[in-house]
């Protein structure tokens, strides 16, 4: 279960045979006006992280959104 830190915990994920899960540590503080976290966060419950259960690269938020989340995270 790799995780990444920058001035504290930032992001973690886990991979399985048919899916992966991931989430930002301080997700409740992130501005997400397009609801990328909200669309998927309830799929599979708490264990799925705030990005939900991902079975394809298409399930990831757009690159610009991920970069924005990372930039927000390091100042929160």
Structure, explained:
There is one protein chain. The chain has one domain. It contains two helices and four strands; from the N terminus they run E-E-E-H-E-H. The protein has helices at 36-40, 63-75, and strands at 3-5, 9-15, 20-24, 53-54. It has a four-stranded antiparallel β-sheet with strand order 1-2-3-4, covered by helices on one side. The N and C termini lie far apart (24 Å). 18% of the residues are buried.
Write the layout of secondary structure elements.
Elements: E1 3-5, E2 9-15, E3 20-24, H1 36-40, E4 53-54, H2 63-75
Antiparallel strand pairs: 1-2, 2-3, 3-4
Distance between the termini: 24 Å
Globally, the shape reads globular
Number of helices: 2
- Domain module count: 1
Describe the main β-sheet briefly. Answer: 4 strands, antiparallel
Question: What is the average of the pLDDT values?
Answer: 82
> What letter string, H or E per element, gives the SSE order?
EEEHEH
Class computed from helices, strands and strand pairing: alpha+beta
- What value does the Rg take, in angstroms? 12 Å
Key features of this structure:
76 residues; globular; four-stranded antiparallel beta sheet; 2 helices; 24% helix; alpha+beta
In short:
By secondary structure, this protein is α+β, with helices and mostly antiparallel strands.
